[in-house]
């Protein structure tokens, strides 16, 4: 091959009019849930419509769900959700905290990958809902010469409404490519020793700053309908194992960490206990100091910064609780980036 431009080459035996070929690369595409472009009504409506129209998220038949969603729900919810987003918005960068943190995670991983593999590997991120879309980032990677793409949903635990729908979007994007790259998806890493250790370190750092040790640590996971568990979704079992492994890594006794679920939506029964109710019950039982963390979220977002640190905190305090400590998600902490890199390296096996 003879170089004709940076990053491109012409095949030595190709006809004169053959288009230049990009130097082969490997792409690592990180994926998170998504974010609205703003907290105004129309930005929120577009985002919520895309999110709540996903059959992996709400599996009610369209004929029954869409009239309700596009009518009553999306007439009201963008206002309430927008107010909540405004409370946590990164006004300096004019973006949601999830977007800011995902950018920081991507930059840290890109730096670590470059230090080990040079410019042979391209690192970027996409959102399942909102921008940047999965399709746009797959297109950019293919255009840049990525002949192999490792798709990494940043969800420690598998769930149909998170990991599976992210993979759906990735596969759908590949369907539009004339020259499809080889593709791999990263499986859940809920019990990876480095991930558990990063969680434990975050607890230890938080507790070291407190004057009084909390009576209970709550691991609050995003909820899902109980029906999904009965239909075979492994999410609940994986959450329970993470909490157990965390307790064992910390060296704590049984009963020192509670497992709960938040973000309940709709009328059917969801995984229990519900965090918002459980913290109030703890306060009534005389547990005046608690700490809450959200192991299923790789980055702080509306469910942690507003729901846990707002609604759930208020539930505890209104029931008589005195000291509420929220332990931030792992975000771009070095131990977290190290854990993600270990997962990435294991999944690149045979490609580099």
Give a short summary of the structure:
This protein has 352 residues and is an alpha/beta fold. The protein contains 11 helices and 11 strands. Helix 6 crosses helix 8.
Could you characterize the architecture of this molecule?
With 352 residues, this protein is α/β, with parallel strands linked by helices. Among the domains are: 39-88, no CATH class; 193-327, Rossmann fold. 46% of the residues lie in helices and 18% in strands. It contains 11 helices and 11 strands. The chain has a 4-stranded parallel beta sheet, sandwiched between helices. Helix 1 (41-52) packs across helix 2, helix 6 packs across helix 8 and helix 9 packs parallel to helix 10. The two termini are 21 Å apart.
Descriptive keywords:
four-stranded parallel beta sheet, single chain, Rossmann fold, 352 residues, alpha/beta
Indicate the topology.
Elements: E1 2-5, E2 8-10, E3 21-22, E4 25-35, H1 41-52, H2 62-88, H3 97-117, E5 121-130, H4 134-143, E6 146-153, H5 160-174, E7 182-185, H6 193-208, E8 216-222, H7 226-230, H8 235-250, E9 257-262, H9 275-284, E10 289-293, H10 302-318, E11 323-327, H11 334-347
Parallel strand pairs: 4-5, 4-6, 6-7, 8-9, 8-10, 10-11
Antiparallel strand pairs: 1-2, 2-3
Helix pairs in contact: 1-2, 4-5, 6-8, 6-11, 9-10
């Amino acid at each position: 091959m003879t170089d004709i431009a940076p990053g491109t080459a012409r095949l030595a035996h190709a006809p004169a009019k053959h288009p230049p070929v990009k130097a082969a690369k490997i792409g690592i595409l990180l994926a998170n849930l998504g974010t609205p472009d703003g907290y105004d009504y129309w930005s929120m409506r577009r985002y919520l419509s895309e999110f709540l129209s996903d059959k992996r998220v709400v599996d009610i038949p369209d004929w029954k769900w869409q009239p309700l969603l596009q009518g009553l729900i999306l007439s009201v919810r963008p206002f309430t959700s927008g107010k909540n987003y405004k409370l946590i918005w990164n006004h300096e960068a004019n973006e949601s905290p999830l977007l800011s943190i995902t950018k920081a995670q991507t930059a840290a991983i890109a730096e670590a990958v470059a230090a080990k593999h040079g410019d042979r590997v391209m690192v970027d991120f996409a959102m399942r809902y909102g921008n940047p879309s999965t399709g746009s980032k797959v297109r950019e990677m293919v255009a840049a010469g990525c002949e192999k793409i490792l798709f990494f949903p940043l969800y420690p635990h598998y769930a149909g409404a998170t990991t599976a729908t992210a993979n759906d979007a990735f596969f759908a994007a590949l369907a539009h490519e004339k020259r499809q790259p080889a593709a791999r998806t990263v499986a859940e890493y809920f019990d990876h020793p480095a991930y558990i250790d990063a969680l434990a370190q975050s607890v230890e750092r938080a507790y070291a700053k407190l004057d009084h040790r909390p009576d209970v640590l709550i691991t609050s996971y995003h909820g899902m309908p109980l029906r999904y568990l009965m239909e075979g979704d492994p999410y609940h079992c994986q959450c329970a194992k993470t909490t157990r492994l965390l307790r064992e890594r910390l060296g704590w006794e049984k009963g020192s960490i509670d497992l709960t679920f938040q973000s309940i939506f709709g009328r059917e029964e969801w995984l229990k206990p519900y965090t918002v109710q459980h913290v109030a019950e703890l306060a009534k039982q005389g547990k005046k100091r608690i700490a809450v963390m959200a192991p299923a979220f790789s980055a702080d977002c509306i469910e942690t910064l507003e729901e846990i640190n707002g609604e759930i905190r208020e539930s505890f305090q209104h029931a008589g609780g005195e000291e509420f400590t929220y332990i931030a998600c792992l975000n771009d902490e070095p131990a977290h980036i190290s854990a993600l890199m270990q997962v990435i390296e294991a999944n690149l096996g045979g490609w580099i």
